[in-house]
Amino acid sequence: MDQAEWKLLKEIADLEKTPQGAYNIRRNGQLDSRNSTANIEITTKTEPGKSGIDIRIKPGTRHESVHIPVIISQTGLNELVYNDFFIGDDCDVDIVAGCGIHNTGCETSQHDGVHTFHIGRNSKVRYVERHYGEGPGTGRRVMNPQTVVYLEEGASINMETTQIRGVDSTKRETKIVAGPNAEAVITEKLLTHGDQTAESDMEIILDGEGATGRVVSRSVAQDSSQQVFYPKMTGNAKCFGHVQCDSIIMGEAKISSIPAIAANHVDAQLIHEAAIGRIAGDQILKLMTLGLTEEEAEEKILDGFLQ
Amino acid sequence: MLEIKHLSYQVADEAGGELGILNDVSLTVADNQFVVITGPNGGGKTTLAKAIMGLVRPTGGAISWNGTDITGLDITQRARLGVSYGFQQPPRFKGLKVRDLLSLASGKESLKREDACQYLTRVGLCAGDYIDREVDASLSGGEVKRIEIATILARGAGLMIFDEPEAGIDLWSFAKLTETFQALHQRREHTLVIISHQERIINLADEIVMISDGKIQKHGPREEIFPEILANTAAGCSYMAEGAN
Fewest 10 Å CB contacts: which of A10, A17, A248, B163? Predict the structure, then answer.
């Protein structure tokens, strides 16, 4: 891997060297390197025409991690990848995914990833996914992640997705089905700039008694970028769901937040909060009185908001 | 030394005429003095304080700090020269933690936890409970106000202006705050200008400035001015009645 590729790995997975534990690094549409462990087995999909991997985590696996970063430095590469996770009962694992595109050419580079998680009873998963794009080329950088999660009884996922810079177009689709006493916590952070577009469709189905779902979405739209959010929370049993969407709008940007909450059970308690607004003038003034310039103040406010 | 000369701030009224928020205000505050500015609501106190910080652009007159004419400087430049201002109604920040704000105020990239805690303690906040909290809507008005005062303490600027620091603060915290102002003054390292209606704060001051109708009505040593204010209060003057509430 060259320096630009290592930089992508650092941005998306905080990796400066080959990670500990299980990992699968995909580079320019090919397997770069892989490591399975005694408890975590990674295999290449065998179905014809279906690119991707299966990750099988044995029941009772605790305090282990899997890194599955994807990096693209080849202009014009367009791929669709399926990654399926089968996580046994009583696990406690961290999964770090993410995609980085360094596009030096004039053709579009695109990564569409479909991640499906089957999380066993009482297992805890922390899933971190970062998307990042860069490069001097005029070619677009496109990422369309699709995440589907099935939580069995008592299972939980804590999902943090971040798209900070450089992704020209994204369409995110997230679907989570939570069984009895299962918990889904989703934190989504998104920043768009230039003429980028981002769409996030999210559907959380609280299917089992005692299921909980929490979504915190924070986004910043700068310049003439556009964002659309469709968070939907459905309660089919006695459950609790909370969706909070906050956006900062700047320049000529446009943001739409179109929430939906649907209760199909009398004991479903669902809450949605959404706000879109510009940076408050007095926030900038306050930080300027502490010696920051207007630009520094704005940067601090955005950093804090997306922290 | 803070020197304000013939400061005016005129705005257009509804009829298109000129409305004087500040009218020819001149005031000199010697180094390390503690001056309380008091007077009725709408009299021009906050506008004067904001004009010193650069948050309001005066339409006439001049302001200098430590011999430098700061009238044409922006907020950031004034802040870097040692002017600081605690907002009457501080903004909230979604995502910024109390510790972040104190670090920014102190100018240190990573302010030590114990230093940050010390500033919070001085405004009557139990540091451990607040240091990692976001300065957002989950904090009460009084809490945000005390954090605001803590940022000014952390900044440690030569000129500290506080705009009604007592507003929204409970009695117990207020006692702690007056102690803090007293200790700060005793160190004689900062010039303190505090807008206040509170007798306990006024009692700490070296000088009192009384502003109403955009003009300085009285300015002199506390011992001289305070009895006059109290006498006026007895005659039914509204501003002290408000302060007593």
Answer: A17
